[in-house]
Design goal:
Elements: E1 2-3, E2 47-54, E3 69-73, E4 76-78, E5 80-84, E6 91-98, H1 107-121, E7 127-133, E8 137-144, H2 147-154, E9 163-164, E10 177-178, H3 182-194, E11 200-207, H4 218-227, E12 230-236, H5 240-243, H6 254-264, E13 268-270, H7 277-288, E14 292-296, E15 307-314, E16 320-322, E17 326-328
Parallel strand pairs: 6-7, 6-11, 11-12, 12-13
Antiparallel strand pairs: 1-8, 2-14, 2-16, 3-4, 3-15, 5-14, 7-8, 9-10, 15-17
Length: about 325
């Protein structure tokens, strides 16, 4: 299923993608708004946070207790309502793979490593979907808990070379070069695939971090992830042979990836000779299984659409928490 990326269609790009529920012969009537599973950003009583904790050497710490954490919203302490070190919440993973020309020599390695990752990380009730993106985004596999189906979808990865954007209808900037619609792909994964899901939601994006031709901005991609309560893990994978044709300078996209990951509570993994992709996937698997699930009822219960800053403080100064930086208190009518 090929997904044209334009602002005019941003709200319906994935509308025809199959849902998690089995299809029926008679299309069901639209569910009332109150029956739609809501992410934490929409008219809820409890704010949920997934946090990873590392020591000063960068190692994961998984033996902390509730009293080791202090949560602040806009600088005001909050009372932790629930806390668990090992959550059984379902895990939904959106894997986004850059198939632009700059990644051509890496696709085979990405395919093999991702197949191993899915076979190891997916457990009962977990699901994943696969999107490739280059000059456009393509949904290669919708929600599934089958590592076999995901492996088959990974075999469909193919290079999508950059061309000038040609789109039906009057689209502003339609003649701009398009080659790597990174921000559009993240926005779609968050707003169209993950926003109404429950449990833990993760976007894993493999790319060199260079965006060319997205209709949406980096800020809009970050906001979509925050509103979907989705964590962005970026795998910075760059082909030096490709950039050798441009004077040896790399894509320099790590800063863009770090901004998106930091704001959503994820991190950036850098792939190089000493840190191969299969090792990165192993570390990512360990992190996703070593998170603390924390929830609180905000003292400010006004749903005014504003952005609330979150901060996690730990009892030990030698430890550092990794979690999203905030959430949007969306008005009920914004459903």
């Amino acid at each position: 299923m090929r997904l044209p990326l334009t602002l005019a269609l941003a709200g319906t790009l994935l509308a025809q993608a199959p849902s998690k529920s089995p299809p029926s012969k008679t299309p069901p009537a639209p569910a009332p708004a109150e029956e739609v599973p809501a992410p934490i950003t929409v008219d809820v009583d409890v704010v949920s946070i997934l946090a990873s904790v590392r020591n000063k050497h960068g190692g994961l710490v998984a033996n902390l207790e509730k009293n080791d954490f202090t949560i602040l919203e806009d600088g005001k302490p909050q009372v932790i309502k629930y806390f668990t070190r090992e959550t059984d919440l379902p895990l939904t993973i959106g894997l986004l793979v850059d198939v632009s020309r700059s990644q051509e020599n890496l696709i085979g390695i990405e395919r093999d490593a991702a197949s191993q990752f899915f076979s190891k990380v997916l457990r009962k009730k977990d699901e994943a979907f696969l999107i490739s993106f280059g000059e456009e985004a393509e949904l290669l596999q919708d929600y599934t808990g089958s590592a076999r189906l995901l492996e088959a979808a990974l075999k469909q990865l193919r290079v999508s070379s950059g061309v000038t954007g040609l789109h039906p209808g009057p689209v502003p900037g339609a003649g701009d070069p398009r080659g790597t619609v990174l921000y559009d792909a993240i926005y779609l994964a968050a707003s169209e695939k993950l926003k109404t899901e429950v449990g833990r939601k993760v976007i894993v994006v493999i790319t060199d971090g260079v965006d060319q031709g997205s209709r949406l901005t980096r800020g809009q991609a970050i906001e979509a992830a925050q509103k979907a309560d989705a964590v962005i893990y970026s795998i910075d994978y760059e082909d030096p042979t490709f950039y050798s044709h441009f004077g040896g300078f790399g894509g320099n996209g790590e800063g863009e990836l770090r901004r998106m990951s930091d704001e959503s509570g994820g991190r950036v993994y850098k792939v190089d000779r000493k840190h191969p992709l299969d090792q990165v996937f192993q570390e990512l698997q360990e992190e996703m299984r070593s998170q603390y699930a924390i929830g609180y009822t905000p003292t400010n219960d006004t749903k005014d659409g504003t952005y609330r800053r979150l901060e996690i403080r730990l009892a030990s100064k030698d430890l550092k928490a990794q979690a999203r930086k905030g959430y949007f208190a969306i008005k009920p009518e914004s459903r």
